[in-house]
Structures are given as structure tokens and as C-alpha cells.
Design goal:
- The complex is a heterodimer of chains A (116) and B (110).
- By secondary structure, chain A is mainly β.
- Chain A has no helices and 11 strands.
- In chain A, strands 2, 4, 5, 6, 9, 10 and 11 form a 7-stranded mixed β-sheet that branches. Chain A has a 4-stranded antiparallel β-sheet with strand order 1-3-8-7, with no helix packed on it.
- Chain B is built from no helices and 9 strands.
- In chain B, the strands form 2 sheets. In chain B, strands 1, 3, 4, 7, 8 and 9 form a 6-stranded mixed β-sheet that branches. A 3-stranded antiparallel β-sheet of chain B has the order 2-6-5, with no helix packed on it.
- Chain B starts with 8 loop residues before the first strand and ends with a strand.
- Classes of the chains: A mainly beta (116), B mainly beta (110).
- The interface between A and B is medium-sized, with 23 and 26 residues.
Chain lengths: 116, 110
């Protein structure tokens, strides 16, 4: 079964850091681009970052310089290092398998709460 | 990069058809045939319903269809069923390895 399982969410103070993980199974992880997408409570989806099969990272302006996406193909794992966290980063974070055309497999998400 | 514009809500009766629009710019929707649509039920992860404007993944009902004209993409659901009630999001590739989502549309089946 193709599956993505996120972990690492939690409560962190403003300015703090958190590292999210996404464990992939059931497919050849190294052959796929991967994404992180977040959703604040009651709000829409927001693309957070992507990483190509060669490890090339991409970010929107809202997180560039604060978030770092990485992957470890030997462990079938995707990561998101989040630094200088703000209240506005509070959301459910999903990892998703994707291409330029679509994101076809999603995890169930992990919740990040930034609050003092 | 601004979010794509979707209506906040649409509604329809069982058996009817509805269309959800997704308006972007010439830098995203208008430039690429890389629009996808996602269905999200409350508390669940998004599910891919349409990709590359009008293609359906295996297992998605043919009641779901997509199209695009200029800077606006559309998702049409025909033969509405109660289980279609959900939030729907469009997404477009925006160049330079960036993606942008729409604000989401809540579909209510009356």
C-alpha cells in the first residue's frame, strides 16, 4: 500500500524550531518529487515547499530562509526543518508525493502549533 | 504569489450539475496546463480528483470533469451525490518550481 506518514508536530514557542518527518512506503521514494503543504484551521491549502529527486529544494516567499526541506532516500524519508516559527505557521502540515502536474498521495498530516 | 480565486461556496441538489471556477493569472493558470483539483472531506487529507486540467486519476468517477479557458479553470461535477459534499481546491503550477492553491470552495449538496 502506498502510504505517507507525517510526524514531529507539536507545540512550540514563537521563534522556536521544529523538524517534521514524513515516512514513505509502498513506492520507490527516490523516484518522486515530494511536497509539504499546510492548512491552518478553517483555512485553505498552502504550498510550503518541494524537493526534486536530485534534492533540489523550492519554497514560496512566505517560508524561504526559515524552512528547509530535505530527503533521505535510503530511509524513504522526507523532512521539513522549520526555524524562526511564527503564529502564522500554525497549521496541519501534510507531505505529498507529486510531480509538476499533481500531488497524488497525501499523508494524514501532523499539527504544528506556534504559541507562547 | 497570490492564491487562485475560487467562490467560497456552491450548492446543488442531488442529480444536478455544478461548476466551480478557479481564476488565476497569465503567470500560472494561463501559462500552464498543469491545473489540478482536490477534494477534502472534514478532518481528512486532500484527494486528487483532476490533473493536467482535465485528466482523471484511476478510480475517480467520470462525474468529475475539468476544463480551462484563459486564466480560469473549472471543475464540473455532474449527477451530484451526497458524498460529493466537501471542500474543493484548485492548484496550478506557477513556474520556477512553485505551486499555488486556490482558497477553496465548500460544496453543499442540498
Amino acid at each position: 500500500e502506498v502510504q505517507l506518514v507525517e510526524s514531529g508536530g507539536g507545540l512550540v514557542q514563537p521563534g522556536g524550531s521544529l523538524r517534521l518527518s514524513c515516512a514513505a512506503s509502498g513506492f520507490t521514494f527516490s523516484s518522486y518529487d515530494m511536497h509539504w503543504v499546510r492548512q491552518a484551521t478553517g483555512k485553505g491549502l498552502e504550498w510550503v515547499s518541494a524537493i526534486g529527486t536530485a534534492g533540489d529544494p523550492y519554497y514560496p516567499g512566505s517560508v524561504k530562509g526559515r524552512f528547509t526541506i530535505s530527503r533521505e532516500n535510503a530511509k524513504n524519508s522526507l523532512y521539513l526543518q522549520m526555524n524562526s516559527l511564527r503564529a502564522g505557521d500554525t497549521a496541519v502540515y501534510y507531505c505529498a508525493r507529486g510531480t509538476y502536474s499533481y500531488m497524488d498521495v497525501w499523508g494524514k498530516g501532523t499539527t504544528v502549533t506556534v504559541s507562547s | 504569489q497570490s492564491a487562485l480565486t475560487q467562490p467560497a461556496s456552491v450548492s446543488g441538489s442531488p442529480g444536478q450539475s455544478i461548476t466551480i471556477s478557479c481564476t488565476g493569472t497569465s503567470s500560472d493558470v494561463g501559462s500552464y496546463n498543469l491545473v489540478s483539483w482536490y477534494q477534502q472531506h472534514p478532518g481528512k487529507a486532500p484527494k486528487l480528483m483532476i490533473y493536467e486540467v482535465s485528466k482523471r486519476p484511476s478510480g475517480v468517477s467520470n462525474r468529475f470533469s475539468g476544463s480551462k479557458s484563459g486564466n480560469t479553470a473549472s471543475l464540473t461535477i455532474s449527477g451530484l451525490q451526497a458524498e460529493d459534499e466537501a471542500d474543493y481546491y484548485c492548484c496550478s503550477y506557477a513556474g520556477s518550481s512553485r505551486w499555488v492553491f486556490g482558497g477553496g470552495t465548500k460544496l453543499t449538496v442540498l
